Predict the structure.
Amino acid sequence: MTPQAASPVSLGTRYATELSELVVPWKAAEASDPRLLMLNEPLAAELGLDADHLRGEEGVRLLTGTAVPEGATPVAQAYAGHQFGGYSPRLGDGRALLLGELPDGRDLHLKGSGRTPFARGGDGLAAVGPMLREYLISEAMHALGVPTTRSLAVVATGNTVYRETPLPGAVLARVAASHLRVGTFQFARSTGDDEVLRRLADHAIARHHPHAADAENPYLELYASVVRDQARLVARWMLLGFIHGVMNTDNTTISGETIDYGPCAFMDAFDPATVFSSIDTGGRYAYANQPPVLQWNLARFAETLVPLVAPDQDEAVRLLTEVLGTFPELYQRAWTAGMRDKLGLPADTPDAQANELIEDLSRLLNATRPDYTGFFRALGAAADGDTAPVREHVGVLAEDWLTRWRALGPARGSMDRVNPLYIPRNHLVEEALDAATAGDMGPFTELLVVVTDPYTERPGRERYSRPAPPDAAPHVTYCGT
Ligand code: AMP
Ligand code: MG
């Protein structure tokens, strides 16, 4: 027997074995000419993975799923989901695989790794542009302090993907607390087997909400904990002007992380009705609709937990409804706290005064529609007495508001740590992805540097903080690209 070199990556099979009813063991498609485009070295180090190994032939084969460590069991995960309000009983990983759990308990997952039994009509593939887009935006979100899945690598496969035009194919290697979604619970519930549902809930509690195990009613506490985490998450999105774009229940996690960066984008000029996704013609997932849509998704989650929460169905519904009813206040509290930070308000500012100022600011933003990110960053300078940049955004309408705000003694230092200077602006993202698709990774790498250090001003990088030119075409995003 020839001795085999031990793989430096070890992948657990916890989900595949504990929830075998919810997975299909599967293999990734071959990549004809794999080439590593991006490797997230800081994340690799955090995970205890050897970057040099990942860059090598065996590492790249791992990152495309074509060679996995001994004992690993790659699986396609089953889930259901409400998409734009309509229920699909069988979605699942159509073009993705869970490779397994990393030593710290997080999932290593691939996107674009070929057709699976859940592919329906899809080709199972992904193009370089959209996978780099997820890499960039998820890493920017992480740098902005938002709970999110992370991106470990993008490998160009050498295969061609056919969309409107032939495009270079790619696989994204993603790291997430888990890939449990509201849609996973919907799928488990639809099996009619409460034992599977209970095992899924126990798995979710153990991985993400361990305190719930000690609660009087662990499954009700699981629900309350997800409601809390998701309320905080969507508040973070709103404070940053982030629009997820496809808040289907299969894209709402149980861990409270942001997942699936398809048609997402950051709002440019403030407008509550902003929608970027080409298919969201009704504006279901528009900026201002995100909190109520999330609450709707959490109601779908509650429905799945009914058999676990109480033996009497009416009692279970009553208990879950009561918890769901706390969502608006939890959201409002998280958003208001974040807005107080964005305005640099001293901690002792009375709530009534802060709330009035925030409400007046909402009216001001609605009336003037400034560049959302630029406006808040400019407020930092105004806290220091230089109101010219803010006036550039909102004109004279802000005079009275600025006077009242400044009288409260806002502190610039803390504001500049919560109001980013650099976000992945749509026109810059498009420019970087077009170049990458044509083979030039330079603009992508440059943009990644600024958006992953979003609060630090960099002389010479002014174009990265400026809004799109006024004659730029409206930004349109696409799902499942
Ligand atoms: P998403 O919009 O990326 O959240 O995907 C929604 C569903 O469509 C998931 O079940 C995906 O696995 C599936 N899907 C998206 N694109 C493809 C594709 N090209 N091939 C197969 N399945 C896909
Ligand atoms: Mg999805």
About this structure: The first strand starts at residue 23 and ends at 25. Residues 1-5 have pLDDT under 50 and may be disordered. The pocket of adenosine monophosphate (ligand 1) is lined by residues 91-96, 118-119, 122-125, 246, 251, 260, 262, 479-480 (CB under 6 Å). The longest helix spans residues 218-240.
